[in-house]
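In practice, a research group might receive sequence data for several interacting partners and want a quick structural hypothesis before committing to experiments. The following worked case mirrors that situation: the sequences arrive first, and a predicted assembly follows.
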Amino acid sequence: MKAMASVSLGRVDMDEWGLAKLAPFKSAVDALEPGFHRIDLTEATFLCPAACAFLVAVQKEAQRRGVLLQIDRSTCSEALDRHLEVSSLLPGKRTSRTTIPIEHFRHEGPEVGHYLSRSWVSQLRGLSIAATEYVLFAVGEIFVNAFQHSGSSLGVVSCGQYYGKSNELHLTVVDIGVGIPATVAVFYGRREEELDGGKAIHWAFQAGHTSVPATSRGHGLAILSRFIERNDGALKVYSGRAYAQVIGTPLHRQLTWRFPGTALDIIIRGVRVVPRSKEDLF
Amino acid sequence: MKVDLCGRYGDHIMSGSDGEALGGEIAAALQRAETVAIDFSGVKSILSAFLNPAVGSLYARFPADMVDRLVTAIDATDLQRSSFDAVRESAREYHNDPRVRLARESAIQDLLVS
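A structural hypothesis for the assembly, expressed as tokens:
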């Protein structure tokens, strides 16, 4: 019988330096033999929503080849333990009005709509009707695009977090597919390395651009971009070897590392959420 | 012909295959020169993945002014109206202006690593 191995992950902030830690983590998981293994989070004082969603995606993918990964709860700090529990990464009864628990969807379908309604709307009861519709639209468009263009049979993982101090709602959607630059490259019959990945992400967010040949599709992300911009929000995308800030001042650059898939962080400002307890105010 | 979206597909509409089926129905109505009113009342969210095949695809098969005139949206929220209009506008341009189609498909030069 093979011995249980452990893979570890450190603190992951939602920035270039933080997310760079996810690629070697996935490589370490990919190298594991089938069996039970533990995830050591001793050094992970904080895991951003994208890291939490990524963790679930990697767990699901590993499970397919018999690698069963379990977070070693004894390695979590008290704050991280609570955060992972309300995000549904760890079992428990604690919930938070300001955290949208992680969900995994393999296919698009009615259950996605029900999830959006159940988790996003009923959890964030403080949202106005217009903001609610906007959030549903934003998450829905991202979901459908991820399903259609990620090239991942695993689907997508989603979660959300409301930050009371800055009054920002972050919607995070992660997939571990081929990435947007690779999808655009295939559309043009090129290799991914020939394209500027950041420009390719911007291309994907422009009206009428789609990686589905000979169609007039590709409006979803463009409409989403306009609405986020109108609401003073932001949209940051890490995909393959590229990072792009799609809303506001266009910004993009090549990364020195490769994000194994796509992580989108949508920031919506100006929504108000009524916290359930003092603990929710962070 | 009136299409009750919520009654048919529920309050969250995001399926591309549902959109394709509706696009086929609307196309049949347009061939009979019937008007088509798409009723959004009760719909909480509707995505372009549905609207593209349901409405945008019509511009590939019928004259743009005919689709504009005969297919209308009723009881849509501002966001839904924007999505509906954006899908129509983009499809109209794509299917009726070869320069737009060519420009979109030849944008590769701008994406290459310089």
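Before designing any experiment, note the following. The beta strands of chain A are 6-8, 35-40, 67-71, 99-105, 156-163, 168-175, 234-245, 251-269. The first strand of chain A starts at residue 6 and ends at 8.
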